[in-house]
Amino acid sequence: xxxxxxxxxxxxxxxxxxxxxxxxxxxxxxxxxxxxxxxxxxxxxxxxxxxxxxxxxxxxxxxxxxxxxxxxxxxxxxxxxxxxxxxxxxxxxxxxxxxxxxxxxxxxxxxxxxxxxxxxxxxxxxxxxxxxxxxxxxxxxxxxxxxxxxxxxxxxxxxxxxxxxxxxxxxxxxxxxxxxxxxxxxxxxxxxxxxxxxxxxxxxxxxxxxxxxxxxxxxxxxxxxxxxxxxxxxxxxxxxxxxxxxxxxxxxxxxxxxxxxxxxxxxxxxxxxxxxxxxxxxxxxxxxxxxxxxxxxxxxxxxxxxxxxxxxxxxxxxxxxxxxxxxxxxxxxxxxxxxxxxxxxxxxxxxxxxxxxxxxxxxxxxxxxxxxxxxxxxxxxxxxxxxxxxxxxxxxxxxxxxxxxxxxxxxxxxxxxxxxxxxxxxxxxxxxxxxxxxxxxxxxxxxxxxxxxxxxxxxxxxxxxx
Length: 466
Ligand code: PLP
Prior knowledge:
Aspartate Aminotransferase, domain 2, four-stranded mixed sheet
């Protein structure tokens, strides 16, 4: 920790040790060779200590990579495709995909190549001249999103895209209320958090967004209609209705087929914007380019993030129509900005990611692989009713719902011991998502199924033994 002002000598000492520490780690980062086992083990110890002392001790205690990795915690180091290795060289199949960030897998060579080329030319825009890549990405977004969505705004994270969606909807409608879903997840900055449908994250924060927020059950279009009708009758202006097409964090929950079409119809009828949070479902994850494509619905605003950066750069976008975007352009075109959002590296990564997604038709791969995987998981669910409650999902956004969080944790831990990474939802292992890179091979999927079968046998046996 830096000493207080007035103790300059010790400040200098702190700076000196920080300088040496940064230099040591730059040597490691830039070293392309392999480590000795002793070096690898010292990196593990050092990483654990840094997390415990300076990052977040709770995280460390919660992680399977620490609790279930045997004698040495797993510190991730490198990866290609749907597999990655830890610093000791142990290999894992990635069935978590960075919670939807890794549609293209680890270190996709074409995305890495584009980013490397751009980083050496000009990594960040001046902010004053016209930077070409932002325009290129905005045009591509207009080309790949449904209907007449045409203008884009860029940032780094999903939650920023949701914040921007809130502001764009408020600016255009001049209204303040939103209708969202119970168990919905839209990010954790204050505006997005207000739309979240989970008490765990909202309640400790007290007062959130100032405007009214109404939560309705996900998938219940009649509840949306009723809420719109009530607000209309009592004179509460609704700016937007915002949902994930398929709820991700809630455990890959697919709404009934009438949900999105009916919500589109009632939002039009009440003159309210429909916002699709495609942060996790976008770009092919659920078997169509966009989650809303399953129901041929065109939202007024679409937010996307995660895999837009090809698993290489953080980048998010909000895409909307020219009419809705107008108040973001006039009279003040700087109404909502962020300095680093849509920088050249992020755009280069996104342009490469979109090219790979289109050329390799990744949404079709997700659909085919989901159609292969989901019935096999359902067979496991039927075989082990004491373990499973149900399987949900579409494409490669799949939820395994267990009888209780302890069982879910046991299955995830047994899978991890067998070299397969999955994760529960943020606070509970009752639901475990299977969300691998869309480019995962059929051989890898078979390997996952075999290891899952083995893990389930172990968990079932231990339940019998009490
Ligand atoms: N919206 C959805 C549907 C998400 O799944 C997430 C993150 O999981 C977010 C928004 C927030 O994205 P980020 O974590 O990049 O802020």
